[in-house]
Structure formats: structure tokens, C-alpha cells
Design brief:
About 85% of the residues lie in helices and about 0% in strands. The chain is mainly alpha-helical and about 90 residues long.
Length: about 90
């Protein structure tokens, strides 16, 4: 009977050690995933900021073009005679 109890205790100790090791690995993976998620969030935020800046530039460019066209129309210059530059 004593030998059976010792065997069960050894198995229990091994199982507990395996569970603890699995828990440590899971925590490490969670930590890595959280760090990767934070990095990706920063990357997305930077790209969103870049997109906003480019949108503002584009709006400014179109705003300037529209103002030039309006001034040309007031001056009596046809839009077809305006040269906007080579694209």
C-alpha cells in the first residue's frame, strides 16, 4: 500500500510540475502577444496620422486649385486655357 501511495505522489508531483511549466509557457506567450499587439497598434496609429496629414495636403491642393479656377473665371479666362502643370 505504501508503494502505491508513493507512486501516486510521484505522478502527482510530475503532473503538477508539467502544469506549472505549461502555465509559464502560456504566460510568456500572452506577454509576447500583448507586446506584438501594442506594436501593431502603434503602427496603425502612425499610419492613420500619416493618412490624415496626406488628406489635409490633398484638400489644400484642391482648395488652391479651386481658388485659382475661380479667380480665372472672374477674370474671364476660360478653364480650358489654364495650364495646371504636367501630371
Amino acid at each position: 500500500m505504501r508503494k502505491l501511495l508513493d507512486t501516486e505522489a510521484a505522478i502527482s508531483t510530475e503532473a503538477k510540475a508539467a502544469i506549472e511549466e505549461a502555465h509559464r509557457k502560456l504566460q510568456a506567450q500572452k506577454s509576447e502577444a500583448a507586446a506584438e499587439l501594442a506594436r501593431l497598434r502603434r503602427e496603425v496609429d502612425a499610419k492613420e496620422e500619416r493618412i490624415r496629414a496626406l488628406e489635409l495636403q490633398l484638400k489644400g491642393a484642391y482648395g488652391g486649385l479651386n481658388k485659382a479656377l475661380q479667380r480665372a473665371n472672374k477674370a474671364g479666362v476660360g478653364a480650358s486655357s489654364l495650364q495646371v502643370g504636367a501630371w
